[in-house]
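It would be a great kindness if you could assist me with a short task in structural biology. A protein sequence and the structure tokens that stand for its backbone fold form the material at issue. I should value your view on which stretches of the chain appear to form regular backbone elements. The record follows directly beneath this note.
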Amino acid sequence: MRIQRPLLPALLATALLGTGATACDSGTTARGDAPPASAAAESPATTVSASSSIPSPAGPSSTPSTSAAPSVSASRPNSATPSPSATRTSSTPHPVAETKASTAAPVQRTALRMTVSTSGGRLTLPRGGAAQEFTVTLRNGNTKAYSRIRLGFQMEFMVAEPGQPVGTGDGGFLLERRNPTTGAWQPATLRIANDVMVPSLYQDGAPLARNEVRTERYRLRANAGGPVGSNPLMIHALDTSLPSVPLPEGRPATHYLPALITAG
């Protein structure tokens, strides 16, 4: 069959128009313009058909249910996430009271003490005048209890000045002790000597317990006709329970009371 020449140009024109339309559609899509309404209407159908054409994987592991997913509280136990209060308690330990051993302070050892008091702190005795009173207090410590203790009094000999009376053998003094029961004044022993008084000179005495306090009252008078001058009165606490005890153990306390004897 013989083809006529005028049909060839018409076929070429139709092919060129189809190519231009395709290029226009591509440019519109690249610029992001909205597709025609017909294309928009067809796209859901295309999508549905595509998703329906892909088979979903079988098995429970591919599509876990909501109930199977563990919650945060279930996956994290309470011990792993302590509360702030629990954290503070663990990081800051409670103060522990210190247990100190009850060590009692050592007891201080105390010994026997003697105190003597009188008016003016000294004896002032005019010859032939009134007697002067004084008190002697024994304060025993916690070291020793005495089964027999007594007071001993001693004065040294006084030498008379030229023209003064020599006095008597007792030194011209009278010592008296007040009886605590009757209140009467009774003569007490006053030793006149220039040697040392030892406990073996006496055998009497009274008990004195630990921490016991005993006070005794005495008075001393200077008789007329004796020497004058200063002559202290020596007062000793004598432990007569063991006369062989050497000094100073046998004489645990001593006090010197100044005494001034004046002319009457």
Observations:
- The chain has four helices and 13 strands.
- The first helix runs from residue 7 to 30.
